[in-house]
Structures are given as C-alpha cells and as structure tokens.
Give the backbone structure.
Amino acid sequence: MVKHSNPSRESAGSAPSPVDFYDAAGYNSENSIGYLMRRIMLMIVNQADKRLESLDLTQAQWGPLFLILQGRATTLAELSRELQIDAGALTRTLDRLEAKGLCKRERSTEDRRVVNLALTPEGKQASAQVPRVLADVHNHLLAGFTRQEWETLMSLMRRMLANAEAMRDGCDFGDAPMKSSRCCGEEE
C-alpha cells in the first residue's frame, strides 16, 4: 500500500508523507535509487576523468576548478560546503592545484581572515574544458531518451533533491518526524 501525501500538512510547511516502495524484507541494492544514482555518478566521473586525462586532472581537481570558474565558490569554506568535502582534504587538493599553477589563494582586502580562491589563466583554460566534457558524457548517458523523458527525469530528480534537503533540514515527513521543526526554508 502506498502512502499518499497529506495536502493540509504540506501547506503547513511539512514535507510530503513518505511512501512505502521499499521494505526491509525485500530490500535489494540493485533496485535501490541510491545504488543506481551512485553507479551513474561513478560512471560520469570515470568518463569525465578519461576525457580530461590529457590535462592531468581528476574529478577531485576539476570539480573545484569548475566551481571556482562558475563563481559558485570563492573561498575554501564555500568550496567545502558545495562539494561536501572536508576542508582539510580540500586544502590538500588546492595545494596540488596551486603547485600545478591552476589556482591561487589571495587574502581578501576587506577581511584579512578571508582567503579568496582564484584561477590562474592556465586554470581558466583547463576548467573551461569541463562543461564540454560533462555535456558530452551526459548526452551519451541519455542516448535513446526523448527530450520529454529527459525533462521528466530532471523534474523527478529535483523533487527527490528537495525531499533530501528537507530530510537534511529536519523536516516533518508526515507521520515520521525528523530531528527539528525547521523545514522548507522556515527558521526554528
């Protein structure tokens, strides 16, 4: 039996009610959305790494470079949060990127406690290759999909992400309350 969401609870700032598509007795990793998403993600990274091998970059390196290029992360803290990687491990990656001449750390002129990350011209050139490579890899993974199927897939994945973020934020999922009452952008 599938549980359906309770609209009155959702409008009150709660996340949709959980469903019962999985049960412990019949749980099989091959049918797990997490397992499948992880396998797909590993394939994307592997294929991108192969295509960026000539630049001597791995995902651990092209990921941060690309985020800096996009302006999505300009400090170690932002990069760590965006990539969900420990700041210590990320510092070692930045050390390697700096040694390769691809990025540099610059002390902020407004706040000396802040160290900004910037790409060198070589870093800009290398990271500019990443979108082309990722587009190519994703398009190969979507071979045989129609545009409508792709749009549906994207919509469904965004809904799952919203649910995952609600879980992280401690939302009340119907009859299964999480850790806190903060949900869907509401403050505690």
